[in-house]
Design a protein that fits this description.
- By secondary structure, the protein is α+β, with helices and mostly antiparallel strands.
- It has one domain: tt1808, chain A, CATH 3.90.1570.
- The chain contains six helices and 13 strands.
């Protein structure tokens, strides 16, 4: 199933608080909101995609336990972007310094911050073109590094805040190192194949 987009006067009139409660009342759905205030309802990911996301999360979480410089989030976390979109990356990282700027109430909502580092994982139901647009959204909203891992074609696309270029890494028999945000974090792509 592809995603379903709800649009119109009702979705445009939702306050951030109303959108938050709409998501809370529909916990079984994967919901995001774009900058046009349209609500996107997505299908559950495939087993293969879930495994890949979990393997990436595990590697980042293990690295973060040692570095202890930030907080790692899984795909169920929503973040409110400066453009009012609410996005849920498959894996993300926020520095402790940035996280401390949030109030206790904001921590219990879709936090109004953009993670410095995000990874999206392509599932069979995802449009590669749409995911690439989403990667640019992450960068334009404040992410310093945004990686798109595609287990289907075994290609990884890298975006950086200081460059308009997209870097491409082909094959899952190698490792990718964070160059901007997470000094020393290396993602072993061979561990995310199923």
């Amino acid at each position: 199933m592809d995603s379903i987009t709800l649009k119109g006067k009702i979705t445009e009139s939702f306050t951030d608080e109303e959108f938050f409660w709409f998501c809370q009342e529909n916990k079984d759905l994967r919901i995001e909101r774009n900058s046009n205030l349209e609500i996107i309802i997505m299908s559950p990911v495939t087993t293969r995609s879930s495994f890949s996301s979990s393997a990436i999360f595990g590697q980042l979480y293990a690295w973060n336990l040692i570095s202890n410089e930030g907080i790692v989030f899984d795909s169920s976390s929503g973040f409110t972007m400066p453009d009012r979109s609410v996005l849920s990356p498959d894996v993300s990282w926020v520095s402790k310094e940035k996280f401390k700027t949030l109030s206790e109430e904001e921590k219990d909502r879709f936090a109004p911050i953009c993670p410095e580092f995000v990874i999206e994982v392509r599932s069979k139901s995802d449009s590669l073109e749409e995911l690439k647009k989403k990667m640019q959204l992450w960068i334009s909203n404040g992410a310093q590094e945004a990686w798109l891992v595609d287990p289907i074609d075994q290609i990884t696309y890298l975006r950086f805040a200081n460059s308009n270029a997209e870097e491409i890494v082909k094959g899952f028999n190698q490792k990718i190192e964070s160059r901007v945000v997470l000094k020393g974090f290396i993602l072993d792509l061979s561990l995310i194949k199923l």
